[in-house]
Design goal:
The protein is α/β, with parallel strands linked by helices. Helices cover about 35% and strands about 20% of the residues. The protein has 2 domains: about 90 residues, Urease, subunit C, domain 1 (Roll), CATH 2.30.40.10; about 290 residues, TIM Barrel (Alpha-Beta Barrel), CATH 3.20.20. The strands form 4 sheets. Strands 1, 2, 3, 4, 5, 15, 16 and 17 form an 8-stranded mixed sheet that branches. A 4-stranded parallel sheet has the order 11-12-13-14. A 3-stranded parallel sheet has the order 6-7-8, sandwiched between helices. It starts with a strand and ends with a strand.
Length: about 400
C-alpha cells in the first residue's frame, strides 16, 4: 500500500461552495481517498495553492463514434458499417482522450456490440485504465427512428420491454430511449414525437425495477413532456423547454443534460457537413441556449454531458468547453462545477463512491492552476489528472 498526502491545495470537494484550503490523502492500492489524520503517508506532495476539484463526469457520450470522420462519412453510419473491432479501437482511443483531459467517469448512451458494457466491466475490474463507465448498450428507438443506425428498433410495449431487459442482462446500468427526432438524421425534426409514453414507460419500469436509470433523447416540447410522463431520470438535450415542461421536471425531480456542445460543434463546420444537418442545428441553437438558462434559473438539477462523438464534438476539450457553454447560457460557475461532479454522480447513481472528494470515495480528481469559479475557462487549461489515486501519464 502506498499513501500520498496532498498539502496546501485549494479544494472544491463537490459539496462545498468555494475552493477551501484542505489537505487530503489517497491510498493508491484501494484507489480511494483516506482519512488524512490517520494516514501514515509514504509520500507528501505540496500543491502550493493549486486548485483541486473532482474529476469531471460526462453524462452523455458515444465512445464508439469518431467525431472527425477519419474513416469517412457520418460517424453513426460509419460505426454501423465498420464493425466491433474498429469501433472498440475508436472507443479505447476516445476513453484515453477523455481521461487525459480530466474526465474520470462517463455515462455512454448509445453503443454497438455492447462495447460500452464490456469496457465498463474491464475498467471496474482494473483491467484497463479509463474513466469509469455507466453503459446503456444500444439505445431503444422506434422503427426508422432517431439513432436507428446504432439503435435497437423496437415497436410496442412488449418489444421494448424485452429489449430493455436484454440490455440489462448484458450489463446496462442505464436505458436510453428516443422520445423525439433530432438534428443529425435527415427526414425528421427535433419536434417529431417518436416513442410513445407507454412504450417509454415500459423501458423505464424495467430500469427502475433493478435500481438503474433511464434517460430520453428529447428535443421537442411534446416529446420532452412525454418522456417526463414516462418517468425518465433525465432529459437529454432539452432544446425546446416551455414553462410547463420545466415545472414537470421540477415536480418529478427530473435531471437535465444539456449537451450544448452538439449544435455548437456542428455550427462551427457548416462547409463540411450535410446541409440538412447544418440547417437544423442553426435553427435550434438559440432556443437551446435559452431553454438551458431558464432551467438553471428555475432550479432544475443539471448534469454535464456533451454528446461527444457527434459531428466535430470531440472527447478532449469538449467537456471543459461544455462548462463554458453552460455558464454562457446562464448557469453560475458553481452550478457548472456541480453539474460535472456531485449532480452527475447522483444522476448516474454513483454518488456513494464517486463525484466528490471525500474519505472512502474513489480518488478521482484534477489539479489546475486557476480558480474556475472566477473564470470557468480555467478547466480548459492543462491539468494534472488522478484516477483511482494514480497520476494519469
Amino acid at each position: 500500500m502506498t499513501t500520498i498526502l496532498f498539502k496546501n491545495a485549494k479544494v472544491f470537494t463537490g459539496k462545498n461552495t468555494d475552493f477551501e484550503g484542505i489537505d487530503f490523502a489517497v491510498d493508491t492500492e484501494t484507489g480511494q481517498f483516506i482519512n488524512k489524520e490517520t494516514a501514515n503517508a509514504d509520500e507528501t506532495i505540496d500543491l502550493k495553492g493549486k486548485y483541486v476539484m473532482p474529476g469531471l463526469i460526462n453524462a452523455h457520450t458515444h465512445i464508439i463514434l469518431d467525431p472527425f470522420f477519419k474513416i469517412g462519412g457520418l460517424s453513426s453510419v460509419n460505426a454501423a458499417q465498420t464493425g466491433a473491432v474498429v469501433n472498440t479501437y475508436i472507443a479505447i482511443d476516445n476513453l484515453n482522450k477523455l481521461l487525459k483531459h480530466g474526465v474520470t467517469y462517463i455515462r455512454d448512451v448509445g453503443s454497438s456490440d455492447n462495447i460500452d458494457l464490456q469496457l465498463s466491466k474491464l475498467e471496474k475490474d482494473n483491467k484497463i485504465t479509463a474513466p469509469g463507465i455507466i453503459g446503456s448498450g444500444p439505445a431503444i428507438v422506434m422503427t426508422g427512428g432517431h439513432g436507428v443506425e446504432l439503435g435497437w428498433e423496437s415497436d410496442g410495449v412488449d418489444e421494448i420491454r424485452k429489449h430493455a431487459r436484454t440490455n440489462i442482462k448484458n450489463g446496462a446500468r442505464n436505458i436510453k430511449v428516443m422520445a423525439t427526432g433530432g438534428v443529425s438524421m435527415d427526414g425528421e425534426t427535433p419536434n417529431d414525437v417518436q416513442l410513445s409514453v407507454e412504450e417509454m414507460r415500459a423501458a423505464v419500469d424495467e430500469a427502475h425495477h433493478k435500481g438503474y436509470t433511464a434517460c430520453a433523447h428529447a428535443q421537442g416540447t411534446e416529446g420532452i413532456k412525454n418522456a417526463i410522463r414516462a418517468g425518465v431520470d433525465s432529459i437529454e438535450h432539452g432544446i425546446y423547454l416551455d414553462d410547463e415542461a420545466i415545472q414537470m421536471m421540477l415536480d418529478n425531480d427530473t435531471y437535465l443534460v444539456p449537451t450544448l456542445m452538439a449544435p455548437w460543434a456542428i455550427n462551427q463546420h457548416p462547409e463540411k457537413l450535410p446541409d440538412f444537418m447544418v440547417k437544423k442545428s442553426l435553427a435550434v441553437q438559440e432556443a437551446h441556449i435559452k431553454s438551458i438558462g431558464k432551467a438553471a434559473k428555475a432550479g432544475i438539477k443539471i448534469a454535464m454531458g456533451t454528446d461527444s462523438g457527434t459531428a466535430y464534438n470531440d472527447f478532449e476539450k469538449g467537456p471543459s468547453q461544455e462548462l463554458e457553454q453552460m455558464v454562457d447560457a446562464g448557469l453560475t460557475p458553481l452550478q457548472a462545477l456541480q453539474s460535472a461532479s456531485i449532480n452527475a454522480a447522483e444522476l448516474l447513481k454513483i454518488n456513494d463512491y464517486a463525484g466528490s472528494i471525500e474519505t472512502g470515495k474513489l480518488a478521482d480528481f484534477i489539479i489546475i492552476e486557476e480558480n474556475p469559479l472566477e473564470n470557468i475557462k480555467a478547466v480548459q487549461a492543462d491539468k494534472i489528472v488522478y484516477k483511482k489515486g494514480k497520476k494519469v501519464e
